Protein: Glycoside hydrolase family 32 protein
Amino acid sequence: ASENETYRPDYHFTPASGWMNDPNGMFYLDGEYHLFFQHYPDTTVWGPMHWGHAVSKDLVSWEELPIAIFPDSLGYIFSGSAVVDRENSSGLGTKENPPIVAIYTYHDAEGEKSGSNDFQTQGIAFSTDRGRTWTKYAENPVLPNPGIRDFRDPKVTQILNSDGSKEWIMTLAVQDHVQFYSSPDLKNWSKIGAFGQNFGAHGGVWECPDLLKMQTPSGEDKWVLLLSINPGGPQKGSATQYFIGDFDGGIFTPDDKMIRWIDYGPDNYAGVTWANLPQKDKRTLFIGWMSNWLYGQVVPTKSWRSAMTVPRELSLIDVDGVLLLKSAPVEELEKLRQAAIEVDESSKLPSQAVELEAELDGSDAFALTLSNELGEKLVITKEAGLVSIDRTNAGKSDFQEDFAAAHAAPMSWKAENLRIFLDASSVELFVNDGELVMTSLVFPNSPWKTVEFQQGVKEGRIFPLKK
Ligand code: FRU
Structure:
């Protein structure tokens, strides 16, 4: 890798250059998974936001396309979602060629500077050419601001009511809660409910919600509400919590008051799910920004900043009577695997991009260490019910004081197997195929050369991963 490309991942999505944060507006259409993202093309730090754009046929290899949505006189283009308006309810396309409608936040930076509170509004744009070009709706904004400073990140989903009617529901992050809005046409929105003030973690502002209908292992319908929070995450800085409950007529009722996190590592933020997946594909697919607002803008990459996590399939699991969200690596990632290398206690890593897979010995404790010739190491363990990734001595960390740390997550049930995805500057740990997940950035001064399985592993293998 050239000096400018050190730490560029092989198989995680990164923008060719410039700054990236949240994933936005993901939808599937005609064989393509679309991924948009918060993007500032001119520097490697946050700035006037655009929606960058990439497509993939398999969720694994991504092609970056030209910027989709540019800032305009109403403001920067902040996070949001996109839907395929199949019945042309918006009238922005035709029944034969339904429009794709993006719903996003306008952030008026001038308005913010001038001290007003109403600088965030919601706007829409549409595409009738498979997402290649976008036209802003002439009557934006479609949802004006009622005088609240944090009023953003609309996630729109279509709901089928019991009487057979369809309704667009927007979930919007509003300071310390979410608000639900309903619309027949994506253009006219009315508020139908709110949730959150007395529930969940509140160490920071709520951002980037998502509302999902899912099924429990016993086949019961449940609603899952994802909510990113910054700061106030379990490892400091930003993280994504979720609620499980029921949703009806704008009222979200959580099953309990437990606080749940989708990923217990420090580096998975603002993740949301894909819209319009094919009927035969019943999956719930998620991707997150693989960073943290604590240090996202100062990590030691040169020509670009930030990668996305690997795409993950979400499902509900029942652990000793408690429902939790599992995040498994999408099965398409197996296509990247090259011939497996069986591991001994200590094995050489063939490249920076590998998947480690291990069956554990039933003792519910494990330890493995990645190291390089400089004596840097990344230590992954489970001990006394705590899963931990320790990057204290794992390479560059002087860019921010919180970076060098060990992060731990409670796991009361047994660890049976591990999948660990390593790339140039990240580790994603999936215990029991994603019943517990930790995602962590790491910047070794030389790539990891060796993996040592010190404890708890019955059998393990290394898959070098194709670029
Ligand atoms: C989350 C976030 C969103 C906002 C966007 C701006 O990381 O702060 O709330 O829309 O980033 O880039």
Q: What stands out?
A: The mean pLDDT is 97. The chain has two domains: 15-329, 337-464.
